[in-house]
Write a structure and sequence with these properties.
With 188 residues, this protein is α+β, with helices and mostly antiparallel strands. The protein is 27% helix and 19% strand. The protein is elongated. The relative contact order is 0.09.
Length: 188
């Protein structure tokens, strides 16, 4: 019934887990099914204590609201998918910074470095768009996109590790302490 299920001890216990029920014929009702249920309820009601008209209207209103919310949710999913595909398609030919990942001890991909390259093409056949960059055979998920252009490596450790391009921009340490607008007394 759930998309993802983890047993304690088999994955990172500190990572938030999410569960999503799949809709099927047993746990969903259509408007037609609702009206059939309402008609059956009216046919089998106690004649000494009939159902109140306001109660029937409340049930019909609730069903209409649930159906409207479902329709709105589906529309939002479709809109998000179109926006994601449009954004991904706009990346073709652009220079990007992609996260390079390694699998950690819990089996999760963890970013360790970045790679700079131009986007060759975008693949929409797998559901979520994947990106192919020049000089790399791997297809990257859109979530691996760090930024447009040459974004400074946010995964570089303080010891200077990382295998990204050596000509990446520095993090702003080129400021002369005497001309530091934030701390003009830096030389004192």
């Amino acid at each position: 019934m759930a998309d993802r299920l983890s047993v304690s001890g088999t994955s990172d216990p500190y990572t938030a887990q999410s569960y999503k029920a799949q809709s099927n014929d047993k746990n969903t009702i259509t408007m037609t099914g609702f009206f059939q249920l309402l008609a059956t309820q009216l046919q089998n009601q106690d004649m000494t204590s009939p159902m109140d008209n306001s109660e029937i209207m409340n049930q019909m209103t609730q069903m209409a609201m649930v159906q409207a919310m479902t329709t709105m949710s589906d529309t939002m999913k479709n809109s998000t998918a179109v926006n994601t595909q449009t954004y991904a398609a706009g990346l073709v030919g652009q220079e990007v910074t992609m996260a390079v990942t390694e699998e950690n001890s819990y089996g999760q991909e963890t970013p360790v470095d970045v790679k700079y390259a131009k986007v060759e093409w975008v693949n929409f056949t797998s559901g979520d768009p994947t990106i192919k960059i020049e000089g790399d055979d791997k297809e990257y998920n859109l979530t691996h996109l760090v930024g447009m252009g040459r974004v400074p490596n946010p995964f570089k450790t303080s010891s200077g590790e990382g295998e990204g391009d050596k000509d990446e921009p520095e993090s702003g340490n080129d400021v002369d302490p005497g001309n530091d607008p934030i701390n003009p007394t830096a030389l004192i």
